[in-house]
Structure formats: C-alpha cells, structure tokens
Design brief:
By secondary structure, the chain is an alpha/beta fold. The protein is built from eight helices and five strands. Helix 1 (about 10-25) crosses helix 8 (about 200-215), helix 2 crosses helix 3 and helix 4 (about 105-120) crosses helix 5.
Amino acid sequence: MPHYEQRPMTDEQFHDATLIWNYHQMDHEQRPCSAAIGLGSHDLGVATTAADLYREGLFPVMVFSGGNSPTTLARFPRGEAVHYREHALSLGVPDEAILVEPKAANTGQNITFSRELLAEAGIAVESLLLVSKPYMERRSYATCRRLWPEVEVVCASEPLELDAYIRSIGDERLVVDMLVGDLQRVIEYPRLGFAVEQEVPAVVYGAYERLVRAGFDSRLVS
C-alpha cells in the first residue's frame, strides 16, 4: 500500500501544504483572451472551468490538450483531451468552439502542440487563457512564458480551497505529493530551459523542504 495512504497529515503539514497551494495560484484577473487551452490531466474540473469561462464570453475557441499518462489512462481511456471535449459538449459548449490536441504528454507539449493547432486553424493569438488544475497555474504560466513569450498569459482554475480539492480527489496525501512535485518543477525547470524563473518566497520554500523530509515525495523528479 502506498505510503500516503498509511499516515494522516498533521495540522502543521496541512498548514505547509496550504502555503504551497496558495503560492501555486497566480490570482490573475479573468479577462477576455484570443483563445484558451485546457491542460489535460486527471482532473475533469479543468474542462468544467473552461466551459464556464467560455459561457462567460472570455474567449471564442478553446483547445483541449492531452493524450494519456499512467495516472489518467484508466480514468480517460480515450485520452484526456477527448474526454474533456465530451464533458464540455455536455455542458453546452458548441462543437465548433473546441479544438482537440490528443498527443501531448507534458506541459511543454500542451503549449507547443496547441500553438501549432491554433495556427493551423488560422486563429491569431495575442492573449491566452490557460486553464489548469488549481495547483498547476504557476507552472503552466512559467512554461508558456518560456515557450510562447509573445502572448499575454492569463491563468485560471477551478475556484477551490485546498480542503475542498482534497475532498474532490479523495486522497490528501496524494494531493500534497502533487503540490510538492509541482513546486519542485517550478524551482528546477528554469535551469533546464523548460520554464521562466519565478521567485519562491522563503516561507514557501521552507514548507516545501519540511514536506519533502516528511515523505511527501512520490511526485518528485530526479
């Protein structure tokens, strides 16, 4: 049985996780953009949020991007982007407002392949609304700024607090592992050329180090 199912979090660990959760969110003002990209993952809330923002008139077209990963294959056997599209259609988004990019296997490919698809469709993009999981806003922003620097980037995600998100996933240890893993990528990816550099406040970095030492490390990359 995985270690995160064996040990409940302490109050101090939840406090540290909340610091990281809040840091990951960019708190951008939602405003009209040329297009949106819904970043594929295990979280169908991304497609729900994209549909909500479309109905608010914030963009005319969206790309759902994502193939499969080991963590999404069982949940979305036809691919993340395909299931996102089906969900958005069920919420009333018209088919002509959705483009599907079914091959991306990471965030860089989400951005790169979606950019190519939008260009092929003849859609000029000056501003882009990135819709992601709540704890992935900052990393997706940093990735897009590195790979598509000429566009204005606005981030959005399902408006949930950490405790509500944990309830929606049903596994607090796994959620915190994912928060920690995304923060590691925010820290490490700029030196690898995958993302732009972002300041990590000392209080957030301290929370990260304490959670890693406590064993919240299943989503770290070597």
